[in-house]
Design brief:
The complex is a heterodimer of chains A (about 300) and B (about 210). Chain A is α/β, with parallel strands linked by helices and about 300 residues long. Chain A has nine helices and nine strands. The longest helix of chain A has 29 residues, at about 275-300. In chain B, helix 1 packs across helix 6 (about 175-190) and helix 3 runs parallel beside helix 6. Classes of the chains: A alpha/beta (about 300), B alpha/beta (about 210).
């Protein structure tokens, strides 16, 4: 879907629910500078969600959807897990894949879109949980990185299988006791960011979703680098408050603790020289564009 | 395999998929009436009669005709509105396929997860599905047949729906207008619409601006 197609047929517009009128009138499709600050002042691309109250994944979804550089030309590939409950509520094209297959599906999709729309930059973004990314789908995930498939992989890391009651996952921290892992985990948390770097990802970021500006920057970097350079990976800590015994209001504190010095999710990035060069040039271009716009506005006012 | 008639329900908690009972889809130029393959012309008249006989005939337009994907779709939406005016029929959109918990507003929307609620609430006895994605239409059509006595008609842009009581295929604006002509022909012969009086609701960004009645 391109932004020109986000329009309702005139003859049936008067029976469409209000949220769709809002989507057409005040969503940020086509706005080059869209970001998390639009939340609250324009129509978001997520309408309700079916996650638990206070779930950090819902916050992550809102920030990611607000940060995509071109949502009208983006296709998400999801997988089994809590995230798959949200996609029916999202105003971005998306595909659900079999558990663990998401990066294989995304590889084919990206190539097909390249053939079908050679003149349009179509972004493919995989969004899956840690079970799909690291355990069941690690083969497909890594193979897509080895092949240098140009799309972004986002992993919602809640350190266990939350959707099915709290089983141990590869990203669970060592020694953690969960409802379905009563003996505690015997092994260290898989160092997925380092695996991604060594597997050929041009941009890798690990962070929590406690700070929207950081999430926005990581998502934008990942998508823009994936367009030009190669595969990118973003690992976001989205703790399952139910499975770690927290209250609805405690998700944010949990993330802040995890990102403090010595924590498991201190923010880190790995960027190749080529990717860094690209990001620097984009930054310069954006700066120049904004400056020109500001000056144009000034001259109009004068 | 014996011939399975796709009649209005309520049939059972879980009616069989018509395809599993041996029902096949019509070829181009054909339609099916209750599982029986017929020439399209026969289906137009039968459909028109069903619409005029109904107390609460309703069109459920889906995302494929609600959004302006291209000019062809916009033309189809115009034809759908003309059909609604010609019979007359209510329009209730299947704007999306979200589960919409805890509840949907059955007076002004329908979705494939709870189609029976909308049909019960509005006492709909004949409905037309148009512009609903195949898999969601199949789901909704089976649920309607399971739990309600509503007669379902599919104006399908592809190969038709065996789970509808009556299905056209390859629907275009021209075909919708052919159905309108069939309605007008019956009306000119003295067949009157039995539809209850109603007010078509209207919505904008602020919500309902004309309430349904």
């Amino acid at each position: 879907m391109s932004k020109e197609k986000i329009a309702i047929c005139e003859d049936l517009a008067d029976i469409m629910p209000p949220e769709y009128h809002e989507l057409v009138e005040s969503a940020t499709f086509g706005n080059q500078d869209r970001g998390w600050k639009d939340i609250g002042s324009s129509k978001e691309l997520i309408e309700q969600h079916s996650l638990c109250a206070g779930c950090p994944e819902s916050i992550a979804f809102r920030y990611i959807l607000a940060s995509l550089p071109a949502p009208e030309n983006t296709v998400f590939v999801g997988s089994t897990g809590c995230t798959s409950l949200v996609f029916p509520h999202v105003a971005v094209q998306n595909i659900h894949s079999l558990f663990g297959n998401q990066n294989a599906i995304a590889s084919g999709l990206k190539r097909a879109l390249k053939c079908r729309f050679p003149d349009i930059e179509k972004d493919v973004v995989v969004l899956a949980g840690d079970g799909a990314t690291v355990d069941i789908g690690l083969d497909m995930t890594m193979q897509s990185w080895f092949r240098q498939e140009k799309f972004t992989t986002i992993c919602f890391d809640n350190e266990l299988y939350a959707n099915t009651g709290g089983q141990e996952s590869g990203l669970m921290q060592k020694g953690f006791v969960a409802k379905m892992a009563p003996k505690g985990k015997n092994f260290e948390k898989v160092r997925l960011a380092e695996i991604a770097r060594e597997s050929g990802c041009a941009y890798v970021a690990v962070l929590t979703v406690s700070k929207p500006n950081r999430v926005e920057q990581a998502i934008k970097n990942a998508v823009l680098v994936a367009r030009e350079v190669g595969p990118t990976f973003v690992q976001l800590y989205t703790p399952c408050i139910l499975e770690i015994g927290k209250q609805s209001m405690e998700g944010l504190d949990e993330m802040k603790d995890a990102e403090s010095i010595g924590g498991r999710f201190v923010q880190k990035e790995y960027i190749t020289d080529e990717a860094q060069k690209l990001l620097d040039s984009i930054k310069e271009e954006t700066k120049a564009r904004k400056k020109a716009a500001k000056e144009a506005k000034k001259s109009v006012n004068a | 395999m014996s011939h399975y008639e796709v009649k209005a329900g309520p049939e059972a908690f879980l009616p069989p998929a018509a395809a599993t009972m041996g029902n096949v889809l019509p070829d181009p130029g054909e339609a099916h009436i209750e599982g029986r393959i017929v020439p399209e012309e026969e289906a137009y008249e039968y459909c028109a009669r069903k619409l005029l006989e109904a107390k609460v005939p309703t069109i459920f337009p889906g995302p494929l005709v609600l959004w302006k994907w291209n000019d062809h779709v916009a033309e189809k939406a115009t034809a759908i509105r003309e059909l609604a005016n010609a019979v007359p029929m209510r329009l209730i959109p299947m704007a999306d396929y979200r589960p919409k918990y805890p509840k949907i507003d059955a007076a002004v929307e329908i979705n494939p997860n709870h189609p029976n609620l909308t049909i019960w609430h509005n006492k709909i006895d004949v409905c037309i599905f148009v512009g609903v994605h195949c898999h969601q239409a199949n789901l909704a059509l089976k649920m309607i047949r399971a739990a309600t006595d509503c007669y379902t008609i599919a104006m399908c842009a592809q190969a038709g729906h065996e789970d509808a009581c009556l299905s056209f295929r390859d629907a275009t604006p021209e075909k919708i207008r052919t159905l309108i002509k069939a309605v007008e022909k019956l009306k000119s012969e003295g067949v009157k619409s039995q539809a209850n009086d109603f007010t078509q609701f209207k919505m904008d960004r602020t919500g309902l601006i004309v309430k349904p009645s």
